[in-house]
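Hi everyone, sorry if this is the wrong subforum. Our group has a chain we'd like a structural model of before ordering constructs, and none of us has done structure prediction before. Sequence below.
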Amino acid sequence: MNLADDLPLPHDEYVTELAERIGAPPPQILTPVQAQALLSPAMLDFFRDSKRVSNRRLHAELLPRLRYPDFRSAIEDLLREGADG
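Answer:
Right subforum, don't worry. Here is the predicted structure as tokens:
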């Protein structure tokens, strides 16, 4: 079973928002030419692959009520817990 949260985002949007939330500089977004030169074939495949995944089964069968249905609803608590040690 593939799992997904309730807020599907492209990887670049996810890491950019996460960096912003933790006060880090935004990640460098590589052009296809840069990626070809810098990344392994496996990493290129990972970033080229784009799947749309439904989480209907997750909600129906496993966890109908998630504490954090998406990363945005979880990030503040996770950052707070990390800051608390």
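For your construct planning: DSSP finds five helices and no strands in the chain. The two ends are 33 Å apart (CA to CA).
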